Backbone:
């Protein structure tokens, strides 16, 4: 490639794609399952220590902070989705109950009135000026402005959501014997 093409690629591409080292890292990060099992406890210990405030390498700490940021955002999104879905389900249930009551059979049917309409029985036409005029009224504008819901994600319900409870030592001993 010419120098001009390299400069164009350097300055006009998305910054994510500029660093060629990052593209090579994706190929290197193929970690075997054996290594994952072998280093599992040490990796979890590193995570706990960084979370408690111990400083290791800058890149390791920055990566861990990014992971924490993404994990918290994921939890917030799922909790918000669950709250909104619960409200939607409640709204759906109320609408279903209302639809069942509205679908009752209409008993106001009058056969004589229907026969008169079908057979065009003679009716007296009271024509006056009002029947010839077509008055158009401007439509009423509905100025509904939606408001953002305030959702409280700091409730105790979401603090331990999705976390399995630890089994007591008595339960483990029962399984062994």
Residues:
């Amino acid at each position: 490639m010419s120098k001009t093409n390299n400069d164009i690629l350097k300055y006009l591409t998305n910054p994510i794609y500029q660093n060629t080292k990052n593209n090579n890292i994706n190929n290197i990060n193929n970690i075997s399952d054996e290594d994952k099992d072998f280093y599992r406890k040490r990796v979890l210990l590193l995570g706990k220590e960084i979370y408690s405030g111990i400083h290791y390498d800058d890149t390791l700490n920055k990566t861990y902070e990014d992971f924490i940021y993404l994990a918290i955002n994921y939890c917030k999104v799922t909790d918000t989705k669950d709250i909104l879905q619960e409200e939607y389900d409640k709204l759906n249930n109320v609408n279903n109950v209302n639809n069942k009551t509205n679908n009752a059979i209409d008993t106001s049917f009058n056969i004589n009135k229907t026969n008169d309409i079908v057979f065009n029985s003679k009716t007296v036409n009271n024509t006056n000026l009002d029947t010839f005029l077509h008055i158009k009224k401007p439509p009423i504008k509905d100025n509904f402005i939606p408001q953002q819901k305030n959702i409280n994600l700091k409730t105790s319900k979401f603090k331990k959501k999705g976390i399995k409870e630890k089994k007591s030592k008595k339960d483990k001993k029962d399984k062994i014997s």
